[in-house]
Specification:
By secondary structure, the chain is α/β, with parallel strands linked by helices. Among the domains are: 72 residues, no CATH class; 190 residues, P-loop containing nucleotide triphosphate hydrolases (Rossmann fold), CATH 3.40.50.300. The protein has 22 helices and 20 strands. The strands form 4 sheets. A 6-stranded mixed sheet has the order 6-7-8-3-9-10, with helices on both faces. Helix 5 packs across helix 7, helix 7 packs parallel to helix 8 and helix 15 crosses helix 16.
Length: 557
């Protein structure tokens, strides 16, 4: 039998065969789409015990290729057209749905990007793992429970018995992702597909998950198809790399070849866009404070009272005596993991949250002492760019209305506000025609530019940017960061830049304050902090940056 024939329904698997082979795969998009195929002529294979990273920007087709393997294409709008997906000698494009259900979860498993949407919110974690085992294997309930407990222990979750009885919302992001991995590995699949499994995680949690996937892959001889847009992650875990653009494979090879000697212009552009860990040269900043946060305290309380149903009051000190200073025309980075208090600090600075104690001094005025009406003249001076531009932009309003609304509320005439809105769109690199369009008509990077234009329309002196590039592809991220730097210099803005990505902080910030559990544990000039971090937590954050050694060598070469 000719195993290379495209007309062959099945092939004979041998010990040397790849566990998964995709050959000349085409996945069709609906009529009227900007291109005909989401996946066009894609071919690659995956060997047992191998980690193949598939990289590319949003819309490149990498996730849809994975969903085609799992038989999870969003039909009828997106459909398989032709090609082969051969798993252990069996062409999955020709099997029945009943057989596909056996393969899915039992022989090929998938870890999704966002576990909160992939896990059933009304089922306990133990029940969800049990459901996977029960569907594919005939085992007594007692044995299934023992296996579930062992899986939760294998993925290094604390107190597996407690996790078994917990609901997804009761776990942290990293714990939910570990539970997803436990579920995916329940039946020791031959292929594990990991679709951006660490994108939404903090840097230290991300490092733990990557280590865990490598350990479990080696233990179970599993082939791993790892989908990501983060080249740092690729540098740390990949054996081979496939680069996708517009539905096609443009380059494939060993991790050394693709990352260190890329041949295709698109691959070169992606690797060049990865922020360096070597801090940029800091500009000279005159020590003239424009904003000072003094002994700021913000505590969240839950439980007790009418709707707490008699539960004890739980207090979380999101900001615990925080002190930071922002100088004129300076960028101050606030870094830390989820729960460190950095976003709470940002919202307190722009007065979206009230504070329990402390002062926020803007040009000599304590903003915490002002009531709502007294605060109004200061609103325009301190503006915020949010992490998720789609959630922060009114989907029912045109871009023009979104940008002009603030200035009009503060007393500017409609014609003046519209004129400035068009200027701001031009400043952030968008066509003037965007004025009449709606947010859903734009890409993620373009929506972030709209959010920036909205903030700048009020002519602020201080810009608070809360994770403004964390949800963007690496090349779009680089464009937005360049835009922020350009606007900051042209308008002489002072900026508070919130991020958990130390690579981004190295290229954007003049000084950095590191937050942990509501407290600033270390702060200083960026280069000094990167070269000689004093606090163990800062050292841990730096050590956990994905692809740290690769990034360092690239910067020095």
């Amino acid at each position: 039998m000719n195993t290379s024939s495209k007309n062959t329904d099945s092939v004979v698997a041998t010990a040397d065969s790849p566990v998964l082979r995709i050959e000349n795969l085409y996945v069709q998009l609906p009529l009227g789409s900007e291109r005909r195929y989401a996946v066009e002529g894609v071919s690659y294979d995956l060997a047992p015990k191998e980690i193949l990273c598939v990289v590319g920007e949003s819309g490149s087709g990498k996730s849809l290729t994975a969903r085609a393997v799992m038989g999870l294409l969003p039909a009828p709008h997106v459909q398989y057209e032709k090609g082969q997906i051969v798993f252990q000698g069996e062409d999955l494009t020709k099997v029945s749905e009943a057989r596909m259900r056996q393969v899915r979860g039992g022989e090929i498993s998938m870890i999704f990007q966002e576990p909160m949407t992939a896990l059933n919110p009304v089922m306990r974690i133990g029940e969800q793992i049990d459901e996977v085992i029960r569907f594919h294997a005939s085992q007594p309930r007692k044995l299934r429970r023992q296996l579930a407990l062992q899986l939760l222990e294998d993925v290094q979750l604390p107190d597996p018995s407690r996790i078994m009885s917990a609901y997804p919302h009761e776990l942290s992001g990293g714990q939910r992702q570990r539970a997803m991995i436990a579920m995916a590995l329940a039946l020791e699949p031959k292929v594990l597909i990991a679709d951006e499994p660490t994108t939404a995680l903090d840097v230290t949690t991300q490092a733990q998950i990557l280590r865990l996937i490598k350990e479990l892959q080696a233990k179970h001889d599993t082939g791993v198809l790892f989908i990501t847009h983060d080249f740092g992650v690729v540098a740390d875990i990949a054996d081979r790399v496939a680069v996708m653009q517009h539905g096609k494979i443009v380059e494939i090879g060993s991790v050394d070849k693709v990352l260190n000697h890329p041949e295709h212009p698109y691959t070169q552009a992606l690797t060049d866009a990865v922020p360096s860990l070597i801090p940029r040269m800091a500009k000279e900043v005159v020590s003239a404070p424009i904003l000072e946060v003094r002994n700021l305290v913000k505590t969240y309380r839950s439980g007790g009272g009418w709707f707490g149903l008699g539960k004890p009051v739980k207090e979380v000190n999101a900001c615990d005596s925080v002190n930071v200073v922002l100088n004129d025309a300076e960028t101050l980075g606030i870094v830390g993991e989820s729960g460190s208090g950095k976003s709470t600090l940002a919202r307190c600075i722009v007065r979206l949250l009230s504070t329990d104690a402390g002062e926020i001094i803007y040009r000599g005025q304590d903003l915490c002492a002002l009531d709502r009406s007294s605060m109004r003249p200061y609103r325009s001076k301190i503006q915020m760019v949010f992490q998720d531009p789609y959630a922060s932009l009114n989907p029912r309003a045109t871009v023009g209305r979104i940008i002009t609304e603030g200035p009009v509320i503060l007393g500017e005439s409609k014609s003046e506000a519209q004129s400035r809105a068009r200027e701001m769109l031009e400043l952030v690199g968008l066509d003037a025609r965007a004025f009449e369009r709606y947010p859903h008509e734009f890409s993620g990077g373009q929506r972030q530019r709209i959010g920036l234009a909205r903030a700048l329309a009020l002519q602020p002196e201080v810009l608070v940017a809360d994770e403004p590039v964390s949800a963007l592809d690496v090349s779009i991220q680089a464009q937005v960061l360049d835009l922020l730097a350009d606007i900051r210099d042209r308008l002489q803005l002072s900026m508070v830049f919130i991020t958990h990505d130390l690579r981004v902080a190295a290229q954007v910030c003049d000084r950095i304050a590191v937050m942990r559990l509501g407290q600033v544990v270390e702060q200083g000039p960026t280069a000094q902090l990167f070269d000689n971090a004093q606090h163990p937590y800062t050292q841990e954050l730096l050590d956990a940056v994905p692809g740290r050694e690769w990034s360092r060598l690239r910067a020095l070469s």
